Amino acid sequence: MAVKVERIKLGSQGLEVSKLGLGCMGMSAYYGGPKPEPEMISLIHHVIDSGVTFLDTSDVYGPHTNEILLGKALKGGRREKVQIATKFSITHKDGKMEVRGDPAYVRASCEASLKRLEIDCIDLYYIHRIDIRVPIEVTMGELKKLVEEGKIKYIGVSEACASTIRRAHAIHPITAVQNEWSLWSRDLEEEIVPTCRELGIAIVPYSPLGRGFFSTGPKLVESLSEDDMRKKFPRLQAENLESNKLIYERVSEMASRKGCTPSQLALAWVLHQGDDVAPIPGTTKIENFNQNIKALSVKLTPEEMSELESYASGVVKGERHAFMSNTWINSETPPLSSWKAE
């Protein structure tokens, strides 16, 4: 039986999206090499036909090729059925990731994304990372102009601290904040979530399945290609994996009791965080998407939510991201030592 995909208001400015979104990054980059274009277009069509219309990409995915793929997939009247989110600010320089938020770069990035996506207006445009050289008010000022010109509808930020979110929101309303959020990545709950809810900003969790860990557990590592960036992630390293697999085993045991898969249970936990939350799990396979969408039908009681949370509380080994602080140039992204592992 088909799962009904609820629609929600994302933020308080009027954007409406499907409760579950789709992260498109892995189709083109980072999780191994680019996947066959015809297969990815078929997947995107299947996703839209299933009622999931919130599609997430970025100019750095590829770079550029993921936006081009999405543009091709949305031909033939599909553009009108979806809400497209893309991002700017991350570039590569001398083997490091440089972050830019100067007005000229903001405008040039937007224009380039519009061309690659072959659209007239971006539904949700995120600052992917915050450039600490440029006051956030200056970056937001240019984005506000792009809204006024009709090139973007709504503005978002990703991986920003609470004070930056407040300052950005004061210049132009922020519709959504995108952050990693899953059973084992919960550091945003202390400050980011309360700040967003106070200001009427929605939360878009990326990697809600722990980058695939809650789908297949420690076996995930065995299936990764050499060019898959997850091979570098601390939580998937051998010294941490032995401990972290116990979390997966406990989630699996509860999933058996609930009559669902571990990934559906982990995703349901994120979906239950509130009506202002729209997670964007990524996939490159139709069968995996079909499993993910069934998480919308998994109901959890407050007691079950607490039980799930207890499995990973204080026991996660390894930082949540592979990007060390010295990998970035001019980014607000904090050093890993300041991130909580629970």
Verbal overview:
Helix content is 37%, strand content 16%. It has 342 residues and is α/β, with parallel strands linked by helices. It has a single domain, classed as TIM Barrel, CATH 3.20.20.100. The protein has a seven-stranded parallel beta sheet, with helices on one face. A three-stranded mixed beta sheet has the order 6-7-12, with no helix packed on it. The protein has a two-stranded antiparallel ribbon with strand order 1-2. α3 packs across α4 and α9 crosses α10. The C terminus is likely disordered. Pfam families: Aldo_ket_red. This is Putative aldo-keto reductase 2.
Summarize this, please?
Residues 19-310 form the NADP-dependent oxidoreductase domain. With 342 residues, the protein is an alpha/beta fold. Helices cover 37% and strands 16% of the residues.
Topology, pairings included?
Elements (H helix, E strand, L loop, with lengths): L6 E4 L4 E4 L2 E3 L13 H13 L4 E3 L8 H9 L9 E6 L1 E4 L2 E4 L3 H15 L4 E6 L8 H13 L3 E7 L3 H10 L2 E7 L11 H8 L2 E5 L6 H4 L2 H5 L14 H21 L3 H10 L14 H8 L8 H11 L15 E2 L13
Parallel strand pairs: 3-4, 4-5, 5-8, 7-12, 8-9, 9-10, 10-11
Antiparallel strand pairs: 1-2, 6-7
Helix pairs in contact: 1-2, 3-4, 4-5, 5-6, 9-10
Percent range for helical residues?
A: 25-40%
- How many domains would you count in the coordinates? 1
The CATH architecture name reads Alpha-Beta Barrel
**Shape estimate:** globular
Q: Gap between N and C termini, in Å?
A: 36 Å
Q: Which strand order do you get reading across the main beta sheet? A: 3-4-5-8-9-10-11
Number of helices: 12
SS strand fraction: 15-25%
- Rg from C-alpha positions? 19 Å
- The topology string of helices and strands comes to EEEHEHEEEHEHEHEHEHHHHHHE
So what's the CATH class? Alpha Beta
CATH superfamily: NADP-dependent oxidoreductase domain
Which whole number gives the mean pLDDT?
A: 94
Helical/strand content category:
alpha/beta
CATH topology, anyone? TIM Barrel
- According to DSSP, the number of beta strands is 12
Pfam family, one: Aldo_ket_red
Protein name: Putative aldo-keto reductase 2
Keywords: NADP, Oxidoreductase
Domain NADP-dependent oxidoreductase: 19-310
